[in-house]
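step 4 of 6: structure.
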Amino acid sequence: GNSVTQMEGPVTLSEEAFLTINCTYTATGYPSLFWYVQYPGEGLQLLLKATKADDKGSNKGFEATYRKETTSFHLEKGSVQVSDSAVYFCALRKNSNSGYALNFGKGTSLLVTP
Amino acid sequence: AAGVIQSPRHLIKEKRETATLKCYPIPRHDTVYWYQQGPGQDPQFLISFYEKMQSDKGSIPDRFSAQQFSDYHSELNMSSLELGDSALYFCASSLGPGGPFSGANVLTFGAGSRLTVL
C-alpha cells in the first residue's frame, strides 16, 4: 500500500538554523507529494507540493525535491524563524481516475527558539 | 478567498449520543474528504465524495456515515459515540478526482471541528 515515513520529532532548533525534515514514501506508480503544516490549534495548510520526479516545490523559504531514486521528499529551510514552529506533515496522493485521498505521515513537531 | 467552512467548531457530547458535522467546500470544488485527527496523531482518512457519490473509503467506523448533497456540502453523522471518537475532524475539498494528474489537485482543509465525548 501507500505510506509515508517521517523522521520523529520533536525537532528543536535555534532561530536561523538550517532545517531538514526527512520524508520517504512507498507507493505504486507515481504519486504526487505534499508538505502540509499545522500551527497550534489550527487546520492543515498546504506548504508545497511536487507532482513528478525531480520537481522542486518551494514556498516561504521551504523547499523539497521529489527524488524517485531514493523515494524521498525531504523538507529543508535555510534559516528558520520562531514563527515556523508547527507540526509538519509529509503526504502523498496517488494519481488515479478514482480520486484517492491524501496519505499522511505521522508528523514532525518543530520548535524554534529565539 | 473563500475557504472550506466547517461547523460546528466545537461540540461536546455524551457517550452513546449522536453528532453531525457539516462541511461546506470551496465554491466549484466537487470533491470532499473527511479526516479524523486524534490528539498528537496524524490525520486519518475516513471517506470522500465526488459529485455526490462515495469516491474513496478509509478507516471510517460502521457507526459513522456521510453524504454529499446537491450543493456539494457534506455531512458526517456519528452515532453511538465512544470516548475514543474524541478528536479533531477535518474536512477538505478539491477539484477532481478524475484524470491522470488528479493526484496533483490540492486538498484545501477547513479549520476542523473538535468533538469531545464525555
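step 5 of 6: annotate
 - Chain A is about 0% helix and 50% strand.
 - Residues 18 and 110 of chain A are 12 Å apart (CA to CA).
step 6 of 6: archive
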